[in-house]
Amino acid sequence: MATSLLADPAVFGTVAEQVATFIKILNEHLGLGKANAKVVRSFVKMVTKLPYDADFEDTRKNYPVDRWSDDYMRSIIEKPTGFRPDYADEILYYLDTTELEKKVRALVPTAKDRLSQALRVFDTNIGRANLAEWVGDKAAELIAECSERDFAHEIAMEKVSLARQALARTEYENFLMGEAQGLCSFTSCKKPLLANSSGKPVTDVEIVIIDPHGDTASPTNLLACCHDCAVSYGPEPSPDDIAQAKIIKEAQQRNHKISDIVAKRDVEEAIAKVIRQLPDADQADLNIEITEPLRVRTKLPDPRTVMLANKILGYVAVYFCYIDTVLKSNELVRPGGFDAFARTVADLFDAMDQAQAPEPEIFTRLVSWLNDQTHGGIEACEAVISYFVQNCQVFR
Ligand SMILES: [Zn+2]
Question: Residue limits of the ABC-three component systems C-terminal domain (predicted)?
Answer without folding.
Answer: 262-395
